[in-house]
Amino acid sequence: MKSCSDHWLPTREYGLRRLREFVPRAGRDYARLRNFDDGPGRHSHVSSLSPWIRHRLVLEEEVISAVLRQHSLEQAEKFVQEVCWRTYWKGWLELRPGVWEQYRARVSRMAGTLSDDAGLRGRWDAATGGETGIECFDAWAGELVDTGYLHNHARMWFASIWIFTLGLPWELGADYFLRHLLDGDPASNTLSWRWVAGLQTPGKTYLARPGNISRYTQDRFRPGSELAVQAPPLRSPAPPAPADPPVSDIPDHALPTGLLITEEDLHPDYLLEDGVNFVDCAVLQTTAGRSPLPVSARVLDFVDGALDDARSRIGRRLGRSASPVQILRTASDALDWARSLGLRQVVTAYPPTGPTAEAVSDMQSLFSTHGIRLVQILREWDKAAWPHATHGFFRFRRQIPRIIETVRANKRPSGSGWDHPAVVGATGQKHQRL
């Protein structure tokens, strides 16, 4: 495994350990203190679990299950909602993939413009290099690059200053985050930037206010007149009406089958529980596809380490821990792998809208010309949650108890996260009914 900071070890075991350590603080303490940003390495009021949840080294349902063993849903409501925001964003974008496609096209055009527009390039260089002269903004830029993480409140302030004070395109800011955040997620990142800009909830923007920054950084920063005092919403075409949610494919148990692991789901044990006899497994590496601009080495190392951890665990489950796992980067690589083993079917966890889904779509097109099935299987969590992401989050959140109960009722022996031994060990207490 490539070296990573001890604070950000990209393994499932480490993520579960951090979950166990955080659970006691996930109730009223979290609700009271979660908005305070105490600075790099001092984010004790939040879980900082997002890099592990984003890559599903630790599952959403595992996190919620552990928390609800120690706290009632009422006590842990704010934390559970924060976990479910990520699920909601994924579902919202999955039902409207054209919003992602529009964002991708804009970033590609603007990446080219940076070479031709000296004024834009200078302001972009100052912002991404932490040299704007706005103390708090420059500090957050440095923290992002140095650690791969920012407190959620700081992300909102940063995005607001980027858009409304510095006048930079929101798409380039979202791209900057996606290239540097260890938890960089196509849905959460893109749609959060759209929300700050007034595009996600039409007409509703987020303005970074000096008093708010001073209060929640406990006067580490005290900005003044250098910040914009207004945040007029940006304009963009209205998003399309939501499409139907995706459905799982059904594997053919009679076909020689390969397992494909992606960074979107690095605990895909549920794929091994349908009785499919896997001939081999491989890893699809798509992290560099997040942007036409370079993705940070810190992010690449974290994902590579997480992929190493996943293929080691899956290799042991398949009884092939001593065999090398092939790393695929293109659809052609995947076809060569499948044909070399005589595979007639490849099974993978359903990848939500983003670079991995784009790569899997290319793979599916190529496979179909060679008579190879590509089977994408949805998690019960996504299957239960995504159909409710048709409108705003406040309508979605009313469904959270039902989503939790549905997933628990349909749990697999070890793949859903409910009652997993590593999670039960968080408190040793009986699960509280919702």
**SS-derived structural category:** mainly alpha
What's the overall average pLDDT, rounded? Answer: 93
Percent in strands = 5-15%
Give, in spatial order, the strands making up the sheet with the most strands: 3-2-1-4-5
Overall structural domain count? 3
The radius of gyration is: 22 Å
Structure commentary:
The protein is mainly α. The protein folds into three domains: 6-94 and 386-424, no CATH class; 105-216, DNA Cyclobutane Dipyrimidine Photolyase, subunit A, domain 3 (Orthogonal Bundle), CATH 1.10.579; 257-377, Rossmann fold. The chain has helices spanning 12-22, 28-33, 50-54, 60-70, 77-94, 97-116, 118-128, 135-147, 152-165, 170-180, 186-197, 210-216, 297-318, 331-340, 355-368, 380-385, 393-397, 400-409, 421-424, and strands at 257-262, 278-284, 326-328, 345-349, 373-377. It is globular and about 70 Å long. The two termini are 40 Å apart.
State the gist of this model.
This protein is mainly alpha-helical and 434 residues long. The protein contains 19 helices and five strands. It has a five-stranded parallel β-sheet, with helices on both faces.
Which short descriptors sum up this protein?
434 residues, mainly alpha, Rossmann fold, 5-stranded parallel β-sheet, 19 helices, 6% strand, globular, disordered C terminus
Give a topology summary.
Blueprint: H1 12-22, H2 28-33, H3 50-54, H4 60-70, H5 77-94, H6 97-116, H7 118-128, H8 135-147, H9 152-165, H10 170-180, H11 186-197, H12 210-216, E1 257-262, E2 278-284, H13 297-318, E3 326-328, H14 331-340, E4 345-349, H15 355-368, E5 373-377, H16 380-385, H17 393-397, H18 400-409, H19 421-424
Parallel strand pairs: 1-2, 1-4, 2-3, 4-5
